[in-house]
Structure formats: structure tokens, C-alpha cells
Design a protein that fits this description.
190 residues; alpha/beta; 6 strands; globular
Length: 190
């Protein structure tokens, strides 16, 4: 597998850490050298959270610099826009269309930007935007947005679905596995 740089971005409490562990496990199982770095920010307070996942034949550092991300996987639209400068010119954004108001919007100091998907595309980015929250709820839990996003991301990797399923089984507790398999399938096939 060729080297890949993936950023997983969102708001604290959305499940980005499980998503990064799932992705790290998957890539390690494929024989890649994998580095994962979690940067929490104010994750417990609903602040911005970013995780870097890098894989390749040999990876020295987990950090992704501006203009180096092959993928930005975003749990929330504004977070996709916030990290856009990290995307490679031919990179891919996979994002949920969910909007979570940041503190300046909550306090009335700012308004949530409109038409973000269109603005991201106008910047030249390739954008795959889905209502991951609705798909997660269809699978059985609003907390499965992370797995819906992983299912959608799997669409862009030349790996068998069985490899993703093995990593899902390794990372998700047994009692939540069926729900997460449904969420993954809904994201993959959306």
C-alpha cells in the first residue's frame, strides 16, 4: 500500500479516537508502518479534536504538515473547513454534514458559516459529504457517526471489506458490534 496521510477531525466526544484506532489497526494488519498521534484540545468541552494517522513502508513521525493530508475525515462541517489547508491539492475530504455550533456561535459573537460544502468545493477540494448522523441513527445509535465515516472512507481504499470488518471486530466491544457493522455498511454504501 502506498503512503497515506489521514487527518480525523471533529469535536470532543464524537468518537474520533475509536475511528483512529480502527484505522491504525486496519493499516497495521496490512503490513504498513503506522503512526497515530492524538491531539485533544478541549475535547471534554466540545472543542476541536484532531488525530493524525500516517502509514507507509516506513513512517518516522505521526505529524502531518499543511498541504500533506491525502484525506481529511471530518465529523463536523466547520472542522473540515478549519483544517482545509492541510489537504493536498488532490486530496479528499470525507465529511458529515452535521453542524455543531462552536462557542462564538453559541454566545452570539459569530454566526455559523453558510454553504460550507459549496465553499469547500469552490476551494478546489474534492468533497464527499453525507448526513452521517442520520445514517448512524438508522443503524441504531447517534454515537455510531464515527463508524459511518469509516465506512465511507473505506470506499477510497483498495482494501477488501473483510479487512475492515476484522478491524471493526477487534476494536469494538462485542455487544456493540452488530450496530457498528450496520453503521459501517450504511456509510460504505451511501
Amino acid at each position: 500500500m502506498e503512503a497515506k496521510n489521514i487527518m480525523i477531525v471533529g469535536v470532543g466526544g464524537q468518537g474520533s479516537l475509536l475511528a483512529s484506532k480502527l484505522l491504525g489497526h486496519l493499516l497495521l494488519e496490512q503490513g504498513c508502518d503506522v503512526k497515530v498521534s492524538e491531539v485533544h484540545g478541549m475535547s471534554q468541552r466540545g472543542g476541536s479534536v484532531v488525530t493524525y494517522v500516517r502509514c507507509g513502508e516506513r513512517v518516522a513521525s505521526p505529524v502531518i504538515d499543511k498541504g500533506e493530508a491525502d484525506f481529511i475525515v471530518s465529523f463536523e462541517l466547520l472542522e473540515a473547513a478549519r483544517w482545509l489547508e492541510y489537504l493536498k491539492p488532490d486530496g479528499q475530504i470525507v465529511t458529515s454534514t452535521q453542524q455543531i455550533d462552536p462557542m462564538p456561535v453559541i454566545t452570539g459573537a459569530a454566526s455559523y458559516p453558510e454553504n460550507l460544502v459549496e465553499k469547500l468545493r469552490a476551494s478546489g477540494a474534492k468533497v464527499d459529504a453525507l448526513d452521517c448522523l442520520a445514517l448512524a441513527e438508522q443503524a441504531g445509535s447517534s454515537k455510531a457517526v464515527n463508524i459511518v465515516l469509516m465506512g465511507r472512507l473505506s470506499h477510497y481504499f483498495d482494501l477488501p471489506e473483510e479487512a475492515w470488518q476484522r478491524s471493526l471486530a477487534a476494536m469494538v466491544p462485542e455487544k456493540f458490534l452488530d450496530l457498528n457493522r450496520k453503521a459501517f455498511a450504511l456509510g460504505r454504501n451511501a
